[in-house]
Amino acid sequence: MFLGLKSLKTLSLKAVKVDDEAIEYFLSNCPLLERLSLHLNFRLRNLKIVGRSLLLRHLEVVRCCKVKTIEICDTNLVSFTYAGKKPKTMLLKNAPKLVEVSINPYGSMWHARAMFLQLSCCFSQLENLQLTVCHSDLQRLRNYMWPELKNLKHFVLIVERWFNDSLLGFLVMIKNWPNLQRFVLQLSYNGSHRHDRFREAPRANMRKAAREL
Question: How many CB atoms lie within 10 A of CB 65?
Fold first, then answer.
């Protein structure tokens, strides 16, 4: 299908009509591939990233709305970005180098949390986390149990369509993250594209606030 790809290290496919078989071909015939980005793909159904032989370090899947399953097993992935409708099945196991995750399920905090919990195999080594959620679940944060992330250092939370809700619920999320050094809260006001960034600098202050909830 494609020749001369033995030295390819980065592959970005945006609005390109490729299916499961084509992606498997690229993975099998690009032995040096380190970065794979898939955007606006409506043919992809089942994405499989499997095998230690792959050198793939960075995987990005954005607005591939027909994806039903994502399987990531026995890989050398360092970062994984997903933005789109929550897939029916997402399996991730034995990915010891995965330290950076970004999730935007185009929905509520519940969907973001559900997807995040499916990445439990990397909780112990995760260092950077970004979640994008809708404002509607802010008041329910206190009822959600979030896992302990002992090595998490940077957390970015993007809240879309924010309507001046209370932000105290966010502290529930960081109670079990003892080594968190930087917390960025990015807010979108009333559907506009303006964003504010808040940086929680002193880690001790975040711990204290969380304990006082």
Answer: 11
Residue recorded with tokens 């993250």 = 177
* Residue 111 backbone phi and psi in degrees, to 5: -65, -40
Q: Under 8 Å CB-to-CB from 80, ≥6 apart: which residues?
A: 58, 59, 60, 72, 92, 98, 100, 101, 102, 119
Residue 20 three-state SS: helix
HSE of 131, CA atoms in CB hemisphere, 13 A: 20
Q: What gap in Å lies between CA 130 and CA 83, rounded to an integer?
A: 11
HEC string of 99-152? CEEEEECCCCHHHHHHHHHCCHHHCCCCCEEEEEEEHHHHHHHHHCCCCCCCCC
CB–CB of 174/180 below 8 Å? yes
Q: At residue 83, does pLDDT exceed 50?
A: yes
Neighbours of 70 (CB within 10 A): 23
CB neighbours of 67 closer than 8 A, spacing ≥ 6? 44, 45, 46, 47, 61, 84, 85, 87
Listed residue (127, 138, 128, 101) closest to 116, CA to CA:
101
Per-residue model confidence as pLDDT tens digits over 121-171: 899 999 999 988 876 555 566 566 778 899 999 999 887 766 656 666 667
